[in-house]
Automatic annotation (TrEMBL), chain A:
Region annotated Disordered, chain positions: 147-167
EC number: 6.3.5.7
Active site: K76, S171, S195
Annotated localization: Mitochondrion
Top-level enzyme category: ligase
Species classification: Eukaryota, Metazoa, Chordata, Craniata, Vertebrata
PANTHER family documented for this protein: GLUTAMYL-TRNA(GLN) AMIDOTRANSFERASE SUBUNIT A, MITOCHONDRIAL, TRANSAMIDASE
Function: Allows the formation of correctly charged Gln-tRNA(Gln) through the transamidation of misacylated Glu-tRNA(Gln) in the mitochondria. The reaction takes place in the presence of glutamine and ATP through an activated gamma-phospho-Glu-tRNA(Gln).
The name this protein goes by in its record: Glutamyl-tRNA(Gln) amidotransferase subunit A, mitochondrial
The encoding gene: QRSL1
Keyword Phosphoprotein set for record: no
Subunit structure: Subunit of the heterotrimeric GatCAB amidotransferase (AdT) complex, composed of A (QRSL1), B (GATB) and C (GATC) subunits.
Key words, A-Z: ATP-binding, Ligase, Mitochondrion, Nucleotide-binding, Protein biosynthesis
InterPro entries: Amidase (IPR000120), Amidase_dom (IPR023631), AS_sf (IPR036928), GatA (IPR004412)
Automatic annotation (TrEMBL), chain B:
Reaction(s) catalysed by this chain's protein: L-glutamyl-tRNA(Gln) + L-glutamine + ATP + H2O = L-glutaminyl-tRNA(Gln) + L-glutamate + ADP + phosphate + H(+)
Quaternary structure (record): Subunit of the heterotrimeric GatCAB amidotransferase (AdT) complex, composed of A (QRSL1), B (GATB) and C (GATC) subunits.
Function: Allows the formation of correctly charged Gln-tRNA(Gln) through the transamidation of misacylated Glu-tRNA(Gln) in the mitochondria. The reaction takes place in the presence of glutamine and ATP through an activated gamma-phospho-Glu-tRNA(Gln).
Main enzyme class: ligase
Species assigned in the record: Apteryx mantelli (North Island brown kiwi)
InterPro entries in UniProt: Asp/Glu-ADT_sf_sub_c, GatC
Family from the record: Belongs to the GatC family.
Swiss-Prot/TrEMBL keywords: ATP-binding, Ligase, Mitochondrion, Nucleotide-binding, Protein biosynthesis
Cellular localization per UniProt: Mitochondrion
Superkingdom of origin: Eukaryota
Name of the gene encoding the protein in the UniProt record: GATC
Enzyme Commission no: 6.3.5.-
Protein name listed in UniProt: Glutamyl-tRNA(Gln) amidotransferase subunit C, mitochondrial
Length: 524, 102
């Protein structure tokens, strides 16, 4: 039951084959037995059970609120949730309880969804590994799959096995791991430069970054206001369409959401791709792209060609500068955004009462990790009066060139772009931490952040397993606000490739001394 | 320059790694100068071609003083409490003693 898709389980609830409370309890107990994944920062057991009970009453009355009623979901810990701690995986917000719900959270709750808890991330969503938060790294559930174990036998002792586990990607790694390990049916992430699509690719789930302006950011703790969007992680494309339908639309509390009415849509089952034009941007054949992913990418292009679609090579000439441009704009907006954390109104406050400024400085030194402080600092550097034109404005100009590249390609008749999501499959944690966060982000966001620069919708679809038995994703990028077309094409592709389901082995086989207490608990 | 920056950012970074990291970030950003942006307008928002939504200037929420104060660590009655203001952050060489005295 827990492995079902959101739509399947919703049907089961409707037919009374399972009750919301049973479903919620099973998810909660699976969260417990998989807690070594570190996917959740907070598990809201009590409120979740209460919500499930309410949902059950509605079902009993025959008046469920819709598809989402009774569906267990998880939310990344950078969305405000009333009554449940919101930490951004930072000391700065440890213990912070928001007085309100983010609009997207409120919408999910209003439609009867059951909020299981808050998921782990890189501190303030700054990272591409879900390794840089105060709660420690998230472990990729595929590290414990039969597929990975068979392809990557442990070097020798159990000691080595412990260091073989791979990262989830990030920064929404907790959400991706939660969906991938069947502890929830959908999860919210956020996507500023790829933070939803990257972990989706590494964890073998669907990750959707909607068009900028389609979904409210109100209550999402901002990283880069001009690029942030709430992201959706699900097991299949149809589920992503369901969640998108429940979240999209204008929000008076977010002036950057557009006012056009959004009509929720269902995706057709019979899809004809013959009239489609798929663009293959040659610049996405980036340095460092693994040969395996390259091969999968061209295989995917052939799939469309064989089905009668027009597949052409296109050029987005400014792509290689995109990541640099992103770096400048991101740090600049971070520097200004993070100014709100001063210890006075909420969050951490240092015991320093000499002066306001020294209290600010001490609070921020204690509250932020090196990565966040580093970005604040470089952002402030790029924003200095003497650098403003040279770096910040320059980056904004390059941003226009990047956005124009897409406009030109889409204007030439291309419907959808097909690219890889990541350069390679997930790397072991021990290897990942050898490089610093900035270097890592520059490599890992390289294929994803351009869509954020241009505000375009993009989706990562799990495509195949690598030689090491780990998921690889491909990315589709669509026209602005053309989510229906994007998801339709993605669904067609998903149907063709038949990505294998994760085969999770029993927990006891891989637990180590740290997780002794979980011994003998089986996975499902 | 570093003093000024640290003052603006209100974070301490004055150690070897912090300075090194900043240098690397600047070097990385310098690649932008290879791009010809002659005559290109800077882009602030991807929604620039749309009308910006302005809501009516009416009060829609309020009376939440208690809730808002709940998350503050130091407060008196209905006020947030800050240490004395208008005292600039000391220069690096004086910092150590300044911080220790409090």
């Amino acid at each position: 039951m827990l492995r079902a898709s959101l739509r399947e389980v919703s049907a089961a609830l409707k037919e009374g084959r399972v009750t919301p409370t049973e479903l919620c309890q099973r998810c909660l107990s699976l969260i417990k037995s998989t807690s070594f994944l570190n996917a959740y920062v907070t598990v809201a057991e009590e409120t979740a059970l209460k919500q499930a009970e309410e949902s059950e009453k509605r079902y009993r009355r025959g008046q469920p609120l819709g598809v989402l009623d009774g569906i267990p979901i998880a939310v990344k810990d950078n969305f405000n949730t009333a009554g449940i701690e919101t930490t951004c995986a930072s000391n700065m917000l440890k213990g912070y309880i928001s007085p309100y719900n983010a609009t997207v959270v409120q919408k999910l709750l209003d439609q009867g969804a059951v909020l299981l808890g808050k998921t782990n991330l890189d501190e303030f969503a700054m990272g591409s590994g879900s390794t840089d938060g105060i709660f420690g790294p998230v472990r990729n559930p595929w590290s414990y799959s039969r597929q990975y174990k068979e392809k990557t036998p442990p070097k020798s002792s159990s000691e080595n096995e412990e260091s073989d586990w791979v990262i989830t990607g990030g920064s929404s790694g907790g959400s991706a791991a939660a969906v991938s390990s069947f502890t929830c049916f959908a999860a919210l992430g956020s996507d500023t430069g790829g933070s939803t699509r990257n972990p989706a690719a590494h964890c073998g789930v669907v990750g959707l970054k909607p068009t900028y302006g389609l979904i409210s950011r109100h209550g999402l703790i901002p990283l880069v206001n001009s690029m942030d969007v709430p992201g959706i992680l699900t097991r299949c494309v149809d589920d992503a369409a369901v969640v998108l339908g429940s979240l999209a639309g204008h929000d008076p509390k977010d002036a950057t959401t557009i006012q056009d009415t959004f009509k929720p849509f269902e995706l057709p089952n019979l899809i004809d791709v013959r009239k489609l034009c798929i663009g293959i941007p040659k610049e996405y054949h980036a340095p460092g792209l693994s040969s395996e992913i390259l091969a999968l990418w061209s295989k995917a292009a052939d799939l469309f060609k064989d089905a009668g679609a027009k597949v052409i090579e296109v050029s987005l000439p400014h792509t290689c500068y995109s990541i640099v441009c992103y770096h400048v704009l991101c740090t600049a907006e971070v520097a200004s955004n993070m100014a709100r954390f001063d210890g006075l109104e909420y969050g951490h406050r240092a015991d320093m009462n000499k002066s306001t400024e020294s209290m600010y400085a001490a609070t921020r030194r204690e509250g932020f990790n090196d990565v966040v402080r580093g970005r604040i600092l470089s952002g402030n550097y790029f924003l200095l009066k003497q650098n403003y034109e040279n770096y910040f404005i320059k980056a904004q100009k390059v941003r226009r060139l990047i956005a124009n590249d897409f406009v030109k390609v889409f204007g030439s008749g291309v419907d959808i772009l097909l690219t890889p999501t990541t350069l390679s499959d997930a790397v072991p944690y021990m290897e990942f931490i050898k490089e610093d966060n900035r270097t890592r982000s520059a490599q890992d966001d390289i294929l994803t952040q351009a869509a954020n620069m241009a505000g375009l919708p993009a989706i990562s679809i799990p495509t195949a397993l690598s030689k090491r038995g780990l998921p690889v994703g491909l990315q589709f990028i669509g026209h602005s606000f053309q989510e229906k077309q994007l998801l339709t094409v993605a669904k067609w592709f998903e149907k063709q490739i038949k990505f294998p389901m994760i085969q999770l082995e029993e927990v006891k086989r891989h637990d180590c001394s740290v997780f002794q207490h979980q011994k003998s608990v089986s996975f499902l | 320059m570093l003093d000024h920056l640290e003052h603006l950012a209100l974070v301490d970074f004055r150690n070897v790694e912090g300075v090194e990291r900043l240098q690397k970030a600047i070097q990385f950003a310098d690649q932008l100068h290879e791009v010809d942006t002659e005559g290109v307008e800077p882009m602030d928002s991807v929604l620039e071609d749309r009308c910006l939504y302005l809501r009516e200037d009416d009060v829609t929420e309020g009376n939440c003083t208690k809730e808002l104060l709940k998350n503050a660590r130091e407060k008196i009655e209905e006020y947030f409490v800050a240490p004395p203001g208008n005292i600039p952050l000391p220069k690096l060489e004086e910092r150590e003693t300044f911080l220790q005295r409090s």
